[in-house]
Predict the 3D structure of the following.
Amino acid sequence: MKLKRWTYLIIGLLILGFAGLWTFKNFNFNSDFEVGQKVDDLNGVNVYYNGGVGNVTARNITTDGYNLGLKYQCVEFVKRYYYEHLNHKMPDSYGHAKDFFDKSLKDGQKNKIRNLIQYTNLSQTKPKVDDLLIFEGTVFNKYGHVTIISKVSDDKVEIILQNPGPYGQSRETYDLEFENEKWKIKNDRILGWLRKE
């Protein structure tokens, strides 16, 4: 009988935990901002607040029918930035953030479904402003993350991002190292960067 009670207790706690995580990821707990509110911009392209990272408002489609992605998600911002600022459309306009990076490609090869050059996060090519930076997924976010590099120095990289969570910031900075003739951004989740030719 004790084993049965413990089993129910564990199942109940797991359900409660998953329900709490789902609620946090999908709702806005930060009353300082409203979903869809501008929080930053890069080269005139706005970054909007999304509340919980799992919040989905609607799909953003351009007037010429190009899919930018789900409003206020990270993918939507980077594709909108590339479309508006760099006049770039991806041949495959769908996919999660981590799917932007093709792990089968070598450093410096063309990523054909994104029509961008792909560099691994240990590359002979230094990251630069306007590159897309792709993050691997985690236990709490299986879709990964994609951002845009907004500043680069000899030892730092600044990124701008949309949908960092209800209390996250739109800018982050990472250390940049040059060792053995290769560049590395110091974050183990970073898969690499993509660049328009």
Observations:
- The helical segments are 2-26, 74-85.
- The chain has one domain: 2-195.
